[in-house]
């Protein structure tokens, strides 16, 4: 962590647990942000003294007010600035003079309004750095800490949430108010609730590191509109999950890329911002959520119940239809129905009526009362094959809903196996749902919705058990050679590297490039072909020709010196007919690769995450099927193999339907080497190796075509 990050962590402790609070710019007017901030702080009954600051008031809400924050006679731990943006600079300067280290700037009118607002933010940062202060905001809803040791409501939210073990961080203040209302209805509590607005100083990364060590927080939820430091966010999330075991759930807006211009390479066109986000989050162990419902469905599973050790579940229901639907959803999510042992089967047979289904899913029949549910849960919990129980209830006239809810809560207490519930309906089951929520039993309106949270918790636990192996750094690469080629291209004013130059760049990083050369005359072409050995492939080199086959610019199976000389002339003639305006630099000649499976490797430079590596099915099919995977560089061996096996067509590489198994290890090494090249040379904007021909296991892979854009 940087010195500034260390300072933030220290100052955040003061911010969340202040012994004294100054509200700088508050007033007496209810229904205004300055007035409501003061009211909310006082209503929460914080464990610290409160000082209102207003140049025109002597008292606010019966509390003595001070003209300026420097007039407050006592020390101040936390300042909350609610002045208009035009005077925030002066207010923050006075906070610094007062020795205040933690500040929340609620005020709007900064970066979000344009360049002038951004300049104001920079002035605030300069003041904060000068006085070693840290601030959240500006342009935020504020901060809430429900811990009884603090009870801080430094926000203008309508309600103070219940205490809980879920932390919620948001870039959007408006979303915060909706989430608070949603959580209130579902009886979900929070440990910390933070709107960080423009994140001019304290960012989501600083907050993640603080919450990593926060004893009150078990799960961290984050809403983001933009990612300014992708690698920093990934590192913070990895540290949080690996060091504290806390899951990080992120909802990221801007999933579509409408209006984005077409990129120049296959990788550039396929690697949209959302696909890159997905890859980065997966790589960092972040759980991405599509909406608020999904986020909290998963969050309560982590917050309320033990994390499952396996994916084997038991389903208990009083209605066959919902049991079948849940079974289908469970299998689709990658869960397994546990096979009951003989003791479980005997116990269910003794306890349930003859008409009941004692196999999984267990159907206790529509007239079931609490005793049948209790017996079924008891048997399932005792079975070593079961690692989670789903309880479904549909309200019949004889169903004792509240008693069943109480029995579920009792069975769950002290169990190391998680229990999820679905009491289907609304009005009839409302009281039972309230009991479940009171006892922190996850409840889902539809039983199928239980499956994704369970699978997410299971896969998170599985991820925590995996060894975290750092990416390999290859020492046999010739960085100086690659640097020289790229520097020459830049001097020549090139944006595209001709294939012969691109091939030399990747060859310097020991990617499997076959023998090749560049000819500007027919005689030279024959000599180069003779030196390489036959057969060879000959391709036109021109910055203006993207699809070489389409203009007759590629010839395969050239088998003699004389043929090479003739093909040189033929290619020039073909281009002259099909694309006469194109400037031809020469002909690239390369050893023809034996038949194999075509794949694509690529690089794209992303504004948030840096170099992104792509892998997929190659050749002409990449644009048709778009069957590709992404990772952020650097890429480890495990991540490279995951990229290969993740694509839908990976079966083609793994010996499907009697096919030969391809050399996956050689592909993984090529991905890792490409990852190192992308990190070493930030001037590479996009890169395609398409196709790379993969041979049978143990026979390697070979680069057939390379494109580099700088």
Structural features, described:
This protein has 710 residues and is an alpha/beta fold. It folds into four domains: 3-217, NAD(P)-binding Rossmann-like Domain (Rossmann fold); 308-465, Rossmann fold (3-Layer(aba) Sandwich), CATH 3.40.50; 515-592, Dna Ligase, domain 1; 597-709, D-amino Acid Aminotransferase, Chain A, domain 1. Helices cover 39% and strands 19% of the residues. It has a seven-stranded mixed beta sheet, with helices on both faces. Strands 20, 25, 26, 27, 28, 29 and 30 form a seven-stranded antiparallel beta sheet that branches. A five-stranded parallel beta sheet has the order 2-1-5-6-7, with helices on both faces. α14 links the parallel β18 (389-393) and β19 (419-423). The longest helix is centred in the last third of the chain and has 18 residues, at 561-578. The chain starts with a helix and ends with a strand.
Any idea of the CATH topology of the largest domain?
Rossmann fold
Q: Which CATH class of the largest domain? A: Alpha Beta
Largest sheet: 7 strands, mixed
Radius of gyration: 32 Å
Distance between the termini: 32 Å
Cross-sheet strand order for the largest sheet: 9-8-11-10-12-13-14
Structural class: alpha/beta
- Count of discrete structural domains: 4
Number of helices: 23
